[in-house]
Specification:
The chain is built from 19 helices and twelve strands. The protein is an alpha/beta fold. The chain folds into two domains: 3-140, NusB-like (N-utilizing Substance Protein B Homolog, Chain A), CATH 1.10.940.10; 229-424, Vaccinia Virus protein VP39 (Rossmann fold). It is an enzyme of class 2 (transferase).
Length: 427
């Protein structure tokens, strides 16, 4: 299938029909050869990163908005403008391939419109690119509610968060210590001329200077390393799992933290629960590749009586559903799919799971509350409220904001993440 046409279809599914980019991308990639996957991803992720600005430019080139069945051609135009402005594809190829893709949808007459729009952009590119943004939404390529939230809560750092969100995410490796120490694996990368740096706090984290296909990473198929952002890897620092313990990873899919716990311990019984069967398939795939075993359960964490009859847990990792506002650079669709009204719904769900899971923790046990959010209502305010309503709890990490640790996107090139370590008092 024509790659530009497929890109436009995917963008229509995400922006107009509110489907997740990760899901639509997975389906779209099945329609094209493996060698074309990077181009599809570059175009779609790029358009979503710069969506507001691209929309503004296109509005100055089209007299009548394309709606209804013609909406797909609006996204073809955004695909074309993105290529011309941000990619190194030869100009004639960007235009001709995008124009040709219009024929895929059986509208040959509209290929002329797309050709005229893109050539008009080329002729006036410098002037169009230099037009001052008409709003902060256009200037920063973020919806107004996220901009307001960042400016209110991070008045000195909000712009650095915006810049991080609009950048390409780095590729972090997690070294499997059952095979190599991090220093040993670092030497292996150097021997293969793969440039990289080590994280200062996450003990297993290595950042590749240039992302690459996993087939080029030494021992990936054999389970020597996994792909996981350094911020997510820090969960092991806070959970501190010990050999032989019974540990629950709640909302565990796709399994990055589950497998990390197993890599760090011996004879540990890990229960991994998630309500999403599709994501749990990826958890099983990760366990199989790493040759690790866990008790995987597909169920709703809020109702443990339906899925757990065993002993109370020594440690519980709550990596809870959230707004995902800390991982926008990896999932730029989040900017446009999330609404401010979603925050209260997520906060309610988090509170419900938190309260129920606390009862599943043995006295003296540790529960780590974690999200990939940077919204205070889902993080420090959530934990502060929990401390107010629960008597037998002690917060052990008063860090960046007084209640746990808030990592903002871009800190040591990490994703945004939040951690609070909650200790249950012994009875």
């Amino acid at each position: 299938m024509n790659i530009r046409a497929l890109s436009a279809e995917l963008l229509l599914q995400v922006i107009d029909k509110k489907n997740l980019l990760s899901q639509t991308m997975r389906v779209a990639k099945r329609k094209i050869p493996l060698k074309e996957h990077p181009l599809l991803q570059e175009i779609c992720y790029g358009v979503l990163r710069h969506l507001s600005r691209l929309e503004s430019i296109s509005s100055k080139l089209i007299n009548v908005p394309l709606k209804g069945k013609k909406r797909i051609f609006h996204y073809l135009i955004l695909v074309g403008i993105y290529q011309l402005r941000f990619m190194r594809i030869p100009l004639y190829a960007s235009v001709s391939e995008t124009v040709e893709s219009a024929k895929t949808f059986g509208k040959v007459d509209l290929s002329g419109l797309i050709n005229a729009v893109l050539r008009n952009y080329l002729r006036n590119q410098k002037k169009l690119n230099e037009i001052s943004p008409s709003s902060n939404v256009e200037k920063h390529n973020h919806p107004s509610w996220i901009l307001k939230m960042l400016q209110t809560n991070y008045p000195e750092r909000w712009l650095s968060v915006i810049n991080a969100n609009n950048s390409r995410a780095p590729m972090w490796l997690r070294v499997n210590k059952k095979h190599h120490t991090r220093n040993e694996y670092s030497r292996l990368l150097r021997n293969n001329n793969i440039a990289h740096t080590l994280h200062t706090q996450a003990p297993d984290a290595i950042k590749l200077t240039s992302p690459c296909n996993v087939t080029l990473i030494p021992g990936f198929k054999e389970g020597w390393v996994s792909i996981q952002d350094a911020a997510a890897q820090l969960s092991i620092n806070y959970l501190k799992p010990q050999d032989g313990e019974l540990i629950l990873d709640c909302c565990a899919a796709p399994g990055g933290k589950t497998t990390h716990i197993l890599e760090h311990t011996k004879n540990t019984k890990v229960v991994a629960i998630d309500s999403n069967p599709t994501r749990l398939k990826r958890l099983h795939e990760n366990l199989n590749r790493l040759k690790l075993k866990a008790n995987v359960i597909c169920n709703d964490a809020r109702y443990p009586n339906k899925w757990w009859k065993g002993n109370k847990f020594d440690r519980i990792l709550l990596d809870l559903p959230c707004s995902s506002t800390g991982i926008i650079r990896r999932h730029p669709d989040i900017k446009w799919l999330r609404q401010v009204s979603d925050i209260s719904a997520f906060a309610k769900l988090q509170r419900e799971i938190m309260d129920v899971m606390w009862k599943q923790l043995k006295p003296g046990g540790t529960m780590v509350y974690a999200t990939c959010s940077i919204v205070p209502q889902e993080n420090e305010l959530q934990v502060e409220a929990f401390l107010d309503r629960v008597e037998d709890v002690i917060l052990t990490n008063y860090e960046s904001n007084g209640y746990g640790r808030q990592i903002l996107p871009g800190e040591e090139d990490m994703d945004g993440f939040y951690y609070a370590v909650l200790k249950k008092q012994a009875s």
